[in-house]
Model the fold of this input.
Amino acid sequence: MGITEHPGAVFPSATAIPSPEFPLRVPVPPHRPFAEALGANLKETFFPDDPLRQLRQARGPRRRLLAVLAYLFPVLNWAPSYDLSLFRSDLVAGITIASLAIPQGISYAKLANLPAVMGLYSSFVPPLVYAMMGSSKDLAVGTVAVASLLTASMLGKEVSPAQYPTLYMHLAFTATFFAGVLQASLGLLRLGFIVDFLSHATIVGFMAGAATVVCLQQLKGMLGLPHFTTATDLVSVMESVFSQTHQWKWESVVLGCCFLFFLLLTRYLIGHLTKGINPLSVSNLVFTGPYMMVALKTGFITGIIALAEGIAVGRSFAMFKNYHIDGNNEMIAFGTMNIVGSLTSCYLTTGPFSRSAVNYNAGCKTAMSNVVMAIAVMITLLFLTPLFHYTPLVVLSAIIIAAMVGLINYEAAIHLWQVDKIDFCVCMGAYLGVVLGSVEIGLVLAVVISLLRVLLFVARPRTTALGNLPNSMTYRRMDQYSMAQSVAGVLILRVDAPIYFANASYLRERISRWIDEEEEKLQSNGETNLEYVILDLGAVGSIDTSGIGLLEELKKSLERRCLQMVLANPGSEVMKKLDKSKVLEAIGQQWIFLTVAEAVAACNFMLHACKPAASNGANSIADVTATTDHQVIMHDDHGNIV
Amino acid sequence: MGITEHPGAVFPSATAIPSPEFPLRVPVPPHRPFAEALGANLKETFFPDDPLRQLRQARGPRRRLLAVLAYLFPVLNWAPSYDLSLFRSDLVAGITIASLAIPQGISYAKLANLPAVMGLYSSFVPPLVYAMMGSSKDLAVGTVAVASLLTASMLGKEVSPAQYPTLYMHLAFTATFFAGVLQASLGLLRLGFIVDFLSHATIVGFMAGAATVVCLQQLKGMLGLPHFTTATDLVSVMESVFSQTHQWKWESVVLGCCFLFFLLLTRYLIGHLTKGINPLSVSNLVFTGPYMMVALKTGFITGIIALAEGIAVGRSFAMFKNYHIDGNNEMIAFGTMNIVGSLTSCYLTTGPFSRSAVNYNAGCKTAMSNVVMAIAVMITLLFLTPLFHYTPLVVLSAIIIAAMVGLINYEAAIHLWQVDKIDFCVCMGAYLGVVLGSVEIGLVLAVVISLLRVLLFVARPRTTALGNLPNSMTYRRMDQYSMAQSVAGVLILRVDAPIYFANASYLRERISRWIDEEEEKLQSNGETNLEYVILDLGAVGSIDTSGIGLLEELKKSLERRCLQMVLANPGSEVMKKLDKSKVLEAIGQQWIFLTVAEAVAACNFMLHACKPAASNGANSIADVTATTDHQVIMHDDHGNIV
Done:
């Protein structure tokens, strides 16, 4: 297409290229003292949500103290303006979640092989602590299925809850204590982002794996096997099961199935529930002896999993209702709640999704609904435990079975497969790791695959050739936009990742392959020779010394091939480092442009209007800026011909 | 500024916004079968340099076999056209590097506590293997100071070379064998990029650390201490030294200093050098017993360090002379050379920078210079060893001292500090890790810091607000371009990294903080309310399901705040995943634009021309495409007023 066919394309330059009065170049950012830059970076890394804004705005020591207290205890923010209409909503929501908390607490405690009453204890003290310190308005505190399962499987491997119930219980308190310490430390050290490395895909796979493992463990009772492996992996369990086929008690299988059936039809009594609120358990924590390490490991793993769930739930509801919660502050709240819990006969609590969703739907307004729930549970503990003698066990079974089934979220796995294959691998890694290996192996495998994906993104950045979209000044990836047209004599490459040590060598090879292929193609078509290589650095968010070294080498190597390297749209970090390392001088500021369009225009101007001058670029480029109209017409004309 | 002041700005639209005949939208890439996409990705990841291109082009089984052989033995590529003029150059270069190789080989063997003649053996067989299999034309093969140092310090910790010289030597062969196996495996498995994770900064710090450690070890001899720690770290050495102050032999110190002085003045005899070429050492490899593990560890660490040096040197010269070397193929060549070397009484060899630079400067043309060097060394071994009885030891000392001093490259460290503080931390991590801990700790520390930097880049991506550059359709970072102006009612945010699980939560918090701050600012200035949030996804190279989830949540949360989310310039991967996860439908294809300028134009059109219609976006946006001129004038007018 020629110019005449598109008269609109004749005057595009005034907006696309700065007019002579505004000779815009890519600026080198001004020097910042090291300490200032470091401070700003640390702040952006560890305090991205600027949590101390209110503290800074407070004047006078008394107000500042109040601001600190309000930061640590968000209850101080909402309590003063709390009124009856809010309480009415919270009362309804609190009673609703209490009616869920009591049977759920008992079931999950059974799942964790702990006394049923501990489930109630855990719905009394921790919600009170959270109501003071938590910043979510919708989170309902309580025990969760997956942490209960993990406690049972990890502690149970070392200490049998049937043989040594007291030691087992003390270890559960100790694990809760360690979990709380870990959670609070992560929050205090502003390391909350560690939880982000447990991606949604990891959690989906991990929970399904944990549920599968617990189901496998039920085979022992179902088949009535006298010896059973303490390992939890599929291979060990299957070995145990099939090496004892002669021991299989068919009566037991039949009985088990009948029992299951019976369970679904009738009801069983739950047994004795101690009256009275939480006894202290400070003296029960185990900090010595051979079992301390298993409590530590259990605490860390369950703590981090519980934290991931609680934080994710809190964030989702905050996003939904459009208020802000501070992730690190939440972690301190979770940690304190579990430390206090471990001293008052509770085991690990967090913010379960199901209970929080009920809380939200019941119309809760503030964390007061947790207080209402705690008081309801307290009343139950003080006066109503006799009633629970008659809690139908089948209800508990139903709750546990529902929890199990809910944990195997195969739809989420299918969604992962459809949208992102690597996330599916992460999910399967977690699942298979837990089922075939152990809980730790599953977690580590999933996190390692996730991290490898991130590293691979950086180690193998995508480089793409850009082309001109017809009738525009826009340059886009030619593999994405089929109508994008290459520009004669110019190769425009875009790098889609930071240039780091991990990819500098790769980029060196990949860019020279691009140039080789382009030259081959041009030669075989008998077209104009390649003269310019434009690197679009718009997506290069960061660069290190290896990256700077690459640009320097590339410049030299292109020079030896009689090609001119041109940079387009480098960010301020790239410009700063190019300047500091003196590579900017080597490349020449005149070969660095604000946009790809300007770079192409300059190249085209050199190719056509002043060919002989191309070797001493500096002066002629200066002319280009003054003759913008001409140059862009050249380009558009050209871009369309090629 | 009004429109009238810049008449040029009135007709910019035809190029910036597609005309009605070309209603360009961001396309959803066509579906690709999973296997095809996987294959393409694997190819791009493991074969970025397309090494099998020649193989594909070859027709017929015989040609194909030749192509395979030529791939494995690059000598077949250059040997047929090798002529006398090339040989003349290589002869000169080969003799030059041989004259360097002989004293250097002897010195480094002494540094590794191995018999001097092994240095000569190592300059005979490995260069011949490399000449067949290596693809670099400039690399000169030989032993290197740092690998010799490491061998001495790592093997010497377990087996004293003075007490058990034979066992020590056999372990050195074994370590070389393992190093070769590791190197060849990395190449065969196309895992060469692992070497890239040893950045330049790591190597600088590591080598300086290794040199410091060796200097510290000399204190034993200098002070004449009878008991000395086998640990290499600074603390242990200093403890050893200062706990035995009563043992310090002042005579020894004086003697040592005199000796050093004497060394520099006079010459010593080197001792006996065995005549004859390399004896076989196949039967000397140690694959059992307590020492196998230390040989394995030494082999892996020295192997990877040597590989990093050799590959970097090869790549630099290839870049310099503008030819291509295949990194993975080079690794196979290095690996084979060391495996063969370990069977013929050689210890670890690689491509040292100093010797290769001499080779290059002497005008080498092909790997034939290595053959010439090997033959010269062979002649020396066969006939000239008696001459070396008189090699002045002071020359060797000078070579070692020079190597030591050369290894502490403080200028490079200063450069790192100036250009990139994190690279400086990596360098110091490697140095301090080696000096205060051990060789392994230093390496691991440096690699971990390097990886953390990469992860931090992804975990804490930069988000910046974009503004319009005056008189242009270009939008750039407002913190980089001070003249960039914000657009009323529109917040334009740019995310500078892939959106992954590791940063989805962070971005959620950071973006809502951007919006909060913008709304606060607008309110305090009494300006127009915020109505549109444009996300520039141009630099988002990749996205996972967590990232897609973030966009979905963000859309909902913005809707609740009565803000419209608009996406600009998403890449094909982002579009594909948005489409597959149905989030594209939720956002609405009409809210996705090719450029920020088009997105702003559409927002401005909605803000001004058809305010009441803003809520049912789809239809009115369709109108925008047809009335391009109008819309852009609105925008430019506006962009300048704000």
User: Anything to note?
Assistant: Chain B is about 65% helix and 5% strand. The domain at 460-641 of chain B is CATH 3.30.750.24 (Transcription Regulator spoIIAA).
